[in-house]
């Protein structure tokens, strides 16, 4: 009997199998970039929350709408901050893996 082939929606492969050795410096830069994106997102959402809080005081007729938008922006700021924190730790892990792959060598000038 012929072998049946199963088609899977997701194929998980080891990075080394697909692309060769892992470029740890690229990994560190990638997580560093995403960390900065998260930080900027948190700052922007926090600023928008403060703007909406100000609008709620200045526009009592629509205060409820502004208060809801303030709370949504505050939640987005917390989420973006959490994302930045997560990426910070991924960056640290990538640096640790890089150090282990290099046999514990440090590349410091001083």
TrEMBL record:
Q: Where is this region: Disordered?
A: 1-32, 83-110
| Name of this chain's protein | Abscisic stress-ripening protein 2-like
Source organism, top-level taxon: Eukaryota
Q: Pfam families attached here?
A: ABA_WDS
The uppermost taxa in this organism's lineage are: Eukaryota, Viridiplantae, Streptophyta, Embryophyta, Tracheophyta
Family designation: Belongs to the abscisic acid and water stress-induced protein family.
Matching InterPro entries: ABA_WDS
Compositional bias of type Basic and acidic residues: which residue ranges? Answer: 23-32, 85-104
